[in-house]
C-alpha cells in the first residue's frame, strides 16, 4: 500500500489521521491547492484504475460502528461492473470513497473506448454518500480522474441532503482534472435531485467555465446538451426558493 497513513498525512500536511477529512475537504474547495495536491499524489501513484484510499480509509477513517462502513473489494467491484455492462450513465447510492465507481469508469474506458480519443463527456455519474468523512475522498477520487458527476451528500432514504456537488471536466480532456462546483439550494435543485430538505448551510462555490465546456463538447451528445442546459440554468439561480 503506497498511501499509508504516514504518506497521506505528509501529502496533506497534517500530523494526525483524524485531521485528514477536514483538511482534504478544505483543499477540495480551493482549486489551486487541490490541483497542486493532485500532482503530488500522482508523483506517488499514476495508476488510476483503483481507489488509492481503500485500505487507508478502512484502517483510519471508516465508521464501522456508527455507519457500518465496510468497503467493497476490487474483485467484487469488477464482477458488478461486468454484470452492469456498457453504459454512458452510472448511479450508486452509499458510494463511499468511490471504489466501485472507479472500477466501473476504468473498465468502461478500457473495454468501450479508444483511450487516445476518449472524451470525459461520454460518461456521467450520479453518486450519493452520507458520511462526512468519506465525502472529501469521493470528491478527490472523481475530480483527479476528470470524471463528470453529481455527488449528493446526504441520506439516500430520507432525502435529507447537506449539499449537492457538481464535478465538471470543462476542458473535456481525459488528462484534465474536474472542477468542483456546489449547486444552489432552491426548489429547482430540490426537484432535480429529489431533495426533501437541505440540512446544511448553502455553499456558494462555482469554478467551471461553462462556455469552455460548450465549446469543447457542443451538441455532440444528447445527454451532454441537457447537462449544459441544466448547469446554465442552475448557475444563474441564487440560494432562494425560486
List keywords for this structure.
methyltransferase; N-methyltransferase activity; 11 helices; 242 residues; globular; alpha/beta; single chain; DNA_methylase_A-5
Q: Structural class, judged by helices and strands?
A: alpha/beta
Radius of gyration: 17 Å
How many strands in all? 6
Which parts are unreliable, with pLDDT below 50 for 5 consecutive residues or more? Answer: none
Oligomerization status of the protein chains: single chain
Between the first and last Cα atoms, what is the distance in angstroms?
Answer: 48 Å
**How are helices and strands ordered from N to C?**
HHHHHHEHEHEEEHEHH
Describe the largest sheet: 6 strands, mixed
Shape: globular
Count of discrete domains: 1
Which range best describes the helical content: under 10%, 10-25%, 25-40%, 40-55%, 55-70% or over 70%? 40-55%
Number of helices: 11
Q: What percentage of amino acids are in beta strands?
A: 5-15%
Mean pLDDT: 85
GO molecular function, one term: DNA binding
Protein name: SAM-dependent DNA methyltransferase
Keywords: Methyltransferase, Transferase
Domain DNA methylase adenine-specific: 54-163
